[in-house]
Amino acid sequence: METFELFSFEDGARAFRVGSTNWRWGMESIERVQAEASQKQLMVHRQITPDFLDPSHEWRRVFAEIWGTFLLVLVACGGGVVAAMSNGRVTLAMSVVAPGIMVMAIIYFMGSVSGAHLNPAVTLAFALRRNFPWTRVPGYVVGQVIGGISAAVFLRVMFGTVGVLGATSPGSGVTYGKALAMEVVLTAGLVNTILGTASGARNIGTNGAIAVGGYIALAGLWSAPVSGASMNPVRSLAPDLVRGDFHTTWIYIVGPAVGALIGVGFEWTLKGKPTAAGSIAAQGSLGVDHPDA
Q: What whole-number distance in Å separates Cα of residue 80 and Cα of residue 88?
């Protein structure tokens, strides 16, 4: 194994020896290297910290939330509708896995635009985590509500109220309290999954999409018969609003909201302070490559 030795000289120069080879550099070289490193760090910082409050991009972000939530609710509610009208050709497993795959696809194609929240509970979680500005929360939530209701209206026009428009409700023999508890726990896990994959290099793309989409599918596979595995207030509110039945809607608003709070608390415990990568994941990277566009 070659030896490594470090030397200092009176003129401030430095030298080191690796094996039998000597290397020497002066203070000017050290200062130049430090300056170059600082410049590179500044360039990287500028690339990953765009002006997320730039209003010129906000309409695109809100539109992305409208369209993405429309697709999610269309698949989540549409599974129940098509299952009812096709005499069960769409199974429960298909119905609960489909939303997870849809979320995965949405993260891929527009996660960099808006962060692909698609869920008021997720937007709330990102804001509480300090990855997302509170001033932008209302716009995102309104966009999500518009997208969700539009999907429910589309299903109503296409198929009527068959399959109760894919609405979520407690399963047979399941009390409201148990359904509420299930939604709290499931949403806490979902929020942890989202925040966890948004805390480092795995923020937007392969790992984040697979983790979030996989969690949604897995949660539905085992817990849909209990509460419907909504984890999303808009997913449950939209069909209830269009069909005019609000008997259990509160469960799917309170449950995800409380679950989001718990999930954020767990994320602080696990990861500590929020990260810059988490902010990019939450807010989208639109304008990073072309900040003047």
A: 9
Contacts of 164 (CB under 8 A, 6+ apart): 80, 239, 243, 245
C-alpha span between 121 and 188 (Å, rounded): 10
pLDDT tens digit sequence for 252-266:
999 999 999 999 999
pLDDT in tens, 225-250: 999 999 999 999 999 999 999 999 99
Burial of 88 from C-beta contacts in 10 A (0-12 / 13-18 / 19+):
exposed
CB 202 within 8 Å of CB 150: no
Q: Where are the domains of the chain?
A: 4-44, 57-283
Cα–chain center distance at 138: 17
The half-sphere exposure of 112 on its side-chain side, counting CA atoms within 13 A, is 11
Sign for the CA dihedral angle at 144, 146, 149, 153 comes to negative
**Nearest in space to 144 (alpha carbons), one of 226, 253, 293, 274:** 253
Q: What is the CATH number of domain 57-283?
A: 1.20.1080.10
pLDDT tens for each residue of 100-158? 999 999 999 988 888 899 999 999 999 999 989 999 999 999 999 999 999 999 999 99
Burial class (CB in 10 A: 0-12, 13-18, 19+), 134: exposed
